Amino acid sequence: MAFIHRRGLLLGAAALGLGALTQRAAAQTPVAAPPAGPHTHAPLPYGFDANEAAIDARTMELHWRFHHGAQVANLNRALAGQDAFAAMPLDELLMNLSRVPEAVRGAIRNNAGGHANHTMFWEIMGGQGGEPTGDLLAAINRDLGGMTEFRNRFNAASMGVFGSGWAFVTVTPSGALAIATRPNQDSPLMDGQRVLMGNDVWEHAYYLRYQNRRNEYVSGWWNILAWDKIAARYGAAMAGTLRV
Question: pTM surpassing 0.70?
């Protein structure tokens, strides 16, 4: 029995060591340049550790570098030879999915949606939380019942996504707000709606720190929102210049 116990300890230690080495190797592996195409993987507007109040630096790096990076690369691959669609801005591409050839429609739907969703996601974080002011707060009070009610409803929507997906706040050109959810990497842009803000509730967005405790991630996420950036998106929506 003692031999078996010692053998189990040794095997466990070896597995932990291998996991640590694999993690370090992954962190040091350079990202291959994506195939040439119309869409680019923009740098984060802050460091990987900027959102530690809710999302750890390692998750931020993996999420941006590998998940979002792969979506940009795969989108460019899917658009190869599709000159008319490759020339479209990302939002127009998503609004015209029904026109995309069926052979590449699924790949473009998933990867263009993911690219748009993540581009928005990185933009609205890196802040200190708190609450909005001005026109945005007035719209939240008018359409979403005030900040407390808004947070409760948005958290419930985030928790209600079965499996992988997103919770969003959509915004009309007149500034009206509504809460929506979408599965996988679908975007309200696919239905002609603009996105004010949204939270990624795929497990890869939170699993390293929270494991299956999505509720803790959803609650903590409010602490890293940059309300000035969200307010700028609100103003752009009413000006007709908000894209993704």
Answer: yes
